[in-house]
UniProtKB/TrEMBL annotation:
Residues 56-97 are annotated as: Disordered. PROSITE patterns: CW. The keyword DNA repair does not apply. The chain crosses the membrane at residues 20-40. It comes from the Bacteria. Residues 78-97 have a biased composition (Low complexity). Cell wall-binding repeats lie at residues 140-159, 160-179, 180-199, 222-241, 242-261, 315-334, 357-376, 377-396, 417-436. Keywords: Membrane, Repeat, Transmembrane, Transmembrane helix. It comes from Mogibacterium diversum. Residues 56-70 have a biased composition (Polar residues). This is Cell wall-binding protein.
């Protein structure tokens, strides 16, 4: 019984040793497999060698497994370090590429001239709208040319539409996000976008026509009257600035080749016009103040001009107005006082009058006579029942005057005298034509003698033609020879 029990115990021990050997072999195979994965250069450890080495004891197998586990751990750590370094290097490289892409995707928004570099990639519809990613997969921001069109991608990468301010300019992007150029209609308002897309503002010439687009933050095309830099313009219904003569609101205006409204005195097509004050510009007709008269730097009167129904000033021309005649000089200014016109002299009223004068006029304490046509009369003129002698300017002559070889006496009233006339104590005799006589003159039964100076000889004895004659105090010749 005891022997049988001992035999059974030995059998159990053998069975246990066999199980332990199998377990050690399996563990060795597992470790060998792990070491092979961790280090392909470890040729001393193989699954086949571990499986066939049944002579290795359980303790040896355990030590070997422990040693191989430590080697595998070190190899895994080395491999992990290498993988980490490679991963870090790859991350650095990718970060560097991303930074380069980011730099390419930004621009200086303070620049007035913005570039739009061409970029290729992919559009993606994402939360908030469309974004664009370049070929490196980097989301783009800023202004770019994509498939030949310009797009603006905001700071969040979202494609922008409508009006956008970039730098100091405004741009318009359609519903598809592409930048617009040329004329743009927004409702009833028109805008103009340059070839670079920037919104026009202020005065702009488009296709040789001038337009006004308001302030830099406005841009809407304007029509009607607008003042720009102290100059006035009128923009028609098409928005283009008008030029030349234009009738606006019942008045005529003139705009130069730059569209600027002209004011004041202007010569247009050889004719003079008055286009009002600086803030007016309307063509004037009728009487207009065109200047001033100054004396000692003080204004003493206005200067007047007259403009016909066509607006042209009367220059070197006559005007009958209200029953009176006026004349305007070569500058269109109404003439006053005395003026020579076509070789004749005329007299006009003062600066505030200007009417042409006729008949007798007292000018500077001198009387002048002007015909019905206003021209000053000169030479001998019979006015009423009397004869007068008028000078170059029509002025009335008085006193003794030598005229055409004869001596005449014109009284204080200018009328020519005839007959006996005493002048400065001397006696003269003027015949029916007014000429003073000289030599012998018989009046009635009396004889008189007048010297070469036409003065009557008196109270003297005068030898004439070799004979002597006596004359009394009245100039009468006494009879008989002396």
């Amino acid at each position: 019984m005891l022997k049988e029990s001992q035999g059974n115990g030995m059998a159990k021990i053998k069975t246990l040793r066999h199980h332990l050997l199998v377990m050690a072999t399996c563990l060795a195979m597992m470790l060998a497999s792990t070491c092979f994965v961790a280090s392909a250069t470890d040729e001393d450890v193989s699954a086949n060698g571990a499986a066939n080495n049944e002579a290795i004891s359980t303790e040896e197998s355990t030590d070997a497994a422990s040693n191989q586990n430590e080697d595998a751990t070190e190899n895994r750590q080395d491999a992990s370090s290498a993988d980490s370094a490679a991963t870090a290097q790859a991350a650095d490289n990718k970060a560097t590429d991303r930074a380069a892409q980011a730099r390419a995707a930004t621009y200086d928004v303070s620049d007035d001239e913005l570039s739009a570099p061409a970029v290729s990639g992919t559009w993606k519809s994402e939360s908030g709208g469309w974004r664009f990613y370049n070929s490196a997969g980097v989301m783009q921001k800023g202004l770019f040319t994509i498939d030949g069109k310009k797009y603006y991608l905001g700071p969040d990468g979202i494609m922008k539409t409508g009006w956008q301010q970039i730098g100091s300019h405004y741009y318009y992007f359609g519903s598809d996000g592409s930048m617009r150029t040329g004329w743009l209609s927004a409702g009833s308002t028109w805008y103009y976008l340059h070839s670079d897309g920037s919104m026009a503002y202020g005065l702009e010439e488009v296709e040789k026509l001038l337009y006004f687009f308001g302030a830099s933050n406005d841009g809407a095309m304007k029509t009607g009257w607008h003042k720009v830099s102290d100059a006035y313009y009128y923009f028609g219904s098409s928005g283009a600035a008008v030029k030349g003569w234009q009738k606006i609101g019942g008045y005529w205006y003139y705009f130069d080749k730059m569209g600027v409204m002209l004011t004041g005195n202007q010569v247009l097509d050889g004719k003079s016009y008055y286009l009002g004050a600086a803030n007016d510009g309307a063509m004037k007709t009728g009487w207009q103040i065109v200047g001033a008269v100054y004396e000692s730097n003080k204004k003493i009167a206005d200067r007047w001009g007259y403009y016909g129904a066509d607006g042209a000033a009367l220059e070197n021309n006559w005007l009958k107005y209200g029953g009176y005649w006026y004349h305007f000089d070569e500058d269109g200014v109404m003439q006053t006082d005395v003026a020579e016109i076509d070789g004749k002299y005329y007299y006009f009223g003062t600066e505030n009058d200007g009417r042409m004068k006729t008949g007798w006029q007292k000018i500077d304490n001198t009387w002048a006579y002007l015909g019905a046509d206003g021209a000053a009369r000169t030479g001998w003129q019979k006015i009423g029942s009397y004869w007068y002698y008028l000078g170059e300017y029509g002025e009335m002559e008085t006193d003794l005057r030598n005229i055409d070889g004869g001596l005449y006496y014109l009284g204080g009233d200018g009328a020519m005298r005839t007959g006996w006339q005493q002048v400065s104590g001397d006696w003269y005799y003027f015949n029916a034509s007014g000429a003073a006589v000289s030599g012998w003159l018989q009046l009635g039964s009396y004889w008189y003698y007048f010297g070469e100076d036409h003065k009557m000889v008196k109270n003297t004895i005068k030898e004439l033609d070799g004979k002597k004659y006596a004359f009394n105090s009245d100039g009468v010749m006494l009879s008989g020879y002396l």
